[in-house]
């Protein structure tokens, strides 16, 4: 019987821009895998970074590290209370016994009056919880049952180093009165997603896992309000060089039509880079890129040129050759972005193609 043959279709084209860093580094280390290789101290700092930008209601975010933390790791305080983020960077998934030990501290120290019960108590762990622990956190009434049944083994001699805490009398009554609905975990995916909204994410996880969407090589048909300044400056440059008064209408029939079309494509390419930067990098990153561009072309702007069109060509050429090798966006910049930056600078009224 002959072997059947099926033609193999080419895989679909990538939806994101391939950078030199992709080729140099290969497949990036996934953020979830990076969570696993942090030390216990790094894990607390990571949680601190996350909590600091997690809730705008927090007036103070504190790290209670080391002995004497009384079962608190990272605290977010607000006007009427506080939240606790309990950091556990263990080799295995969080077990019921692990949760009971920590909640035993919470019960004891709130009973003593050292602090109040938190609004939320979240376990933060890279490997998540065991299946039994997940079941317990889903059925909050079971937490109380587990605390009582496991107290002697998991809590009595692990709350303080100086005394054994028996669960009896007023302490038992107090535990029985607590509604543990405020206790839960934060999944690893949730941790990474929330941390990605902080300015610390790029420096901790790197940026090569970020993919910039493909840049359209066609400008919108309609001219937007954000284009008026740089386009007017370009038309003035064309008019000075050509000896005619050019507008957006009549320039289409001139030798400068392609210059205008390319300028618009480049402008929107730079605009897309700015949006990408705003979504994935710390605030001010793109402005630093524009500042570098301005510094790199300033002397060319100051040169004597026969007309504004020649100045535009000279500055565009210089923009295309600027290295930006030390800038965080380096691996995402295209030639069209480089040239588009000069039009953004004109929009910012840093300079014009025609002096005076």
Give structural attributes.
single chain, 356 residues, alpha/beta, 2 domains, five-stranded mixed β-sheet, 14 helices, 7% strand, elongated
Give a concise summary:
This protein is of the alpha/beta class and 356 residues long. The chain is built from 14 helices and 5 strands.
Strand and helix map with partners:
Blueprint: H1 20-25, H2 31-36, H3 40-52, E1 60-63, E2 74-78, E3 81-87, H4 96-112, E4 120-124, H5 131-138, H6 141-154, H7 169-177, E5 183-186, H8 188-195, H9 201-205, H10 228-242, H11 257-280, H12 285-302, H13 308-321, H14 335-347
Parallel strand pairs: 3-4, 4-5
Antiparallel strand pairs: 1-2, 2-3
Helix pairs in contact: 4-6, 10-13, 10-14, 11-14, 12-13, 13-14
